[in-house]
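question for whoever is on the cluster today: can someone run the full assembly for these? four chains, 442 residues total. i dont have access anymore since they changed the login thing
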Amino acid sequence: MAQNRTQSDHDAVSELTTGRLSVYLRCLAHLESAGQHTVSSAELAERFHLNSAQIRKDLAYFGEFGTRGVGYNVSRLKEHLVRELGIDRNRNVVIAGAGNLGMALADYRGFNDNGFQIAALVDVDPAKIGRMSRSGIPVLALTELPRIVGERRVEIGIIAVPAGAAQDVYAAFVAAGVTAILNFAPAQLRAHEHVKIKSVDLRINLELLSFYLKGVEDDTA
Amino acid sequence: MAQNRTQSDHDAVSELTTGRLSVYLRCLAHLESAGQHTVSSAELAERFHLNSAQIRKDLAYFGEFGTRGVGYNVSRLKEHLVRELGIDRNRNVVIAGAGNLGMALADYRGFNDNGFQIAALVDVDPAKIGRMSRSGIPVLALTELPRIVGERRVEIGIIAVPAGAAQDVYAAFVAAGVTAILNFAPAQLRAHEHVKIKSVDLRINLELLSFYLKGVEDDTA
DNA sequence: GCATGTGAATGGATTCACAGCT
DNA sequence: AGCTGTGAATCCATTCACATGC
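^ ran it for u. tokens below:
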């Protein structure tokens, strides 16, 4: 049963699967607000160009939630995914780096909604400290990090500083007690055990598209 | 030989591989500026916590570039990857959506550097049209998209609008002749053939971290 | 009858292990 | 001797196909 699940069981669910769970969740929220009560794996599969068996497998990781011959109850499944993803309660976040990207992320809807809240930005630049983002999130000194993490029970850190500063900021987050980090710096961080790190490299995506374009050019040349 | 490579050969190189090529490239640029002339797959593997055979396989897709018993010539390999990724010439980019995220991306270093240049932002909000980003990139009316794409030979479009507007913006990009798109909207786009689309969902990454945190909580509960 | 849940089969990507070159 | 390049083996994710239950 789902009762005594262990860390390793949790690890057994791959990032690909959890990513899809997030996508399903968004779709379910949409369906719920559209008043649809029931949905089948085939219907979800069509929306996302996925295989229906994959969706059933993804959803079955955490127990049987569908009804054979009928499908899944939209609201029930949605609530279930919310709990399973751990966003049934609020998690506070701090962003390191109050540059263009950090400020934009601080005001980004998806980061201040349904389970997440940006508590503060931190930076080392005195010209930025004391200001606020457009939506009113304060920029504090990096030295305030331990305090804010403790007071606001911050669980997630976002690194939005230049590559050269990323490792130090990472260390500062870990020292302050943050155990999950989203890294936007194009740097390979030496990672600490027991600290989950997920890196997003924005430039790689552009290079991927360039590679595609080059392929088309070569073919038509 | 690499002479008559076809589209399908190109497709045969997976996104995972090209992503790693981008990472190697960054590392090589770093090594080159540090004055290192030669590097082995084992050395690269250690830096990225990868298997050295994988690195050799990745690099061997496009021909033999190493020297047995020695390793890879840093500058030569770097130049080679730059050409292979198609960033040996400039590619122009337009960002749709001059909100927080779009403006931040317009000024983002990695998007205005080494092969990429943001030509303009486009938006429908009259209050935004006519302004400029901090680094001076102009915000034009969405209706100007066909003109700017034609004049500036824009090849890549970035979607940084709310989910509800994403499909329309996508259509506008395609109609204007853009064939590669980077999508930041949390929406499943109905894709056109012959148009490459790569989606980045920022929120999914936070939910992934939340899932990890929940796993730790459950274990220690 | 119909859609879920799941073992078995398939398909891809990673890793191993070694032949081949310098 | 040392490191690349690569077939073979392994591992993991996806898909198939069907038994199971409403």
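summary bc i know u wont read the tokens: Residues 15-33 of chain A form the longest helix (19 residues). Residues 1-8 of chain A have pLDDT under 50 and may be disordered.
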